[in-house]
Amino acid sequence: MFKKILKSFDYSIIAVYVLLCLFGLVMIYSASMVVAVQRYGVDSAFFYDRQKLNLCLAFLLFLVTAFLPYKIYQTNKFLISIMGIIVVGLLSIFVFGHVSNNAQSWLEIGTASLQPSEFAKLVVIIYLSAVYAKKQAYIDSFNRGVAPPLIFLIVVCLMVGIQPDIGTASIIFLIGCTIIVSSGMKFKTIMRLFSIGLGVLVVFSPFIFLARHKIFTPERLSRFTGFLHPFKTEGSDGLQLVNSYLAIGSGGIKGQGLGQSIQKLGYLPEPHTDFIMAIIAEELGVAGVLFVILGLAYLVLRGIYIGVKIKDPFGSLLAIGISSMLAIQSFINLGGVCGLIPITGVPLPFISYGGSSLVLLSLSMGILVNVSMFKNYEENFKKKQEKHKETDYHSKRPFKIYSR
User: Fold this and answer.
1) Preceding peptide of 164 cis, ω within 30°
2) In what order do the strands lie in the sheet with 112-114?
3) Chain centroid to CA 335: how far?
4) What average pLDDT is seen over the chain?
5) pLDDT one-digit tens code per residue, 38-54
6) Residue 315 CB neighbours (<10 A)
7) Are 266 and 34 in contact (CB under 8 A)?
8) Which stretches are transmembrane (predicted)?
9) 270 in Cβ contact with 334 (< 8 Å)
10) Considering just the CA atoms, what is the radius of gyration of the chain in Å?
């Protein structure tokens, strides 16, 4: 049985996941050497050593979720437990959380920091996938099928948004929308939801206008200013984006060589987190950028393929939800680095420094591998059944004896 399970694993997902994590570890060391000494006054390998510990924990949790049957997550006890834990975690932020990058999003546990909003992404994916999979018979019923999961999604988004962490709240909301669209609802029901959303926005628009100074703070507006006019504000709001452009442009096709970045020497404020792709482009050129983008694209497309092929609605929505999380987060980070969208402070999956993000993504990849394993196991089982039927059919065929 164990050998059959091992044979059914999708080793291509595992290989790409491990390669991206190891590549990210190398680039974190390269990008953070100077920042660690100059800004934080610690050893040059400080962030590298911390990420190694994060990676060990992440790999362990990946193995746990890869072998744990994903259908366990659909049980009511599990759903109630994770919902309670994430709500308590998000509420505790407002009491015990500390501020980092203008957001009260972190809990300090000893020497480590934990970001509950990161894990809220996976909780939303599991919860929405489980609920909508159970409600397939009446999924277009607004009161029974549509509304209850939406309430939980909106509550989580509001709790994350008022930290304030608009970037993470937006990702959670977009992930939820992806699962809703993929849940099997009719187009008419989806358009009804869209209309209700617009109506709510119109109703609350006067309150938004009155609270505009609290919502659209100078810090948030500066991100739009830096995005729209980076070179006019290169000394202030556009500093990060301009230096990101310089890093990408100076890398060219071949790159300056591993460890040879100029922008990480104090010019680019966050070289090992939000803007690590700019350092990759500067040091490794097009090859380094393509390695990361193609790796992430493979995981996203492979996850969508698994979601489409598997017959179990819960497994299908899980795979699509995890793939959408990876795709949305990658797009937001890469879009900010190259100036397509405003900078939001979202890390690049598997590559940027950060324990919470890496652990979350590793848990998610383990679940995706487990869903894929069950899909492959079912397909192999059906193939064997068909072969047995063919064998039985041929063995039972009557023989005709012909004589002259």
Assistant:
1) yes
2) 98-100, 103-109, 112-114
3) 15
4) 84
5) 888 898 889 999 999 99
6) 26
7) yes
8) 12-32, 52-70, 77-96, 116-133, 145-162, 168-185, 192-211, 275-301, 313-344, 350-374
9) no
10) 24
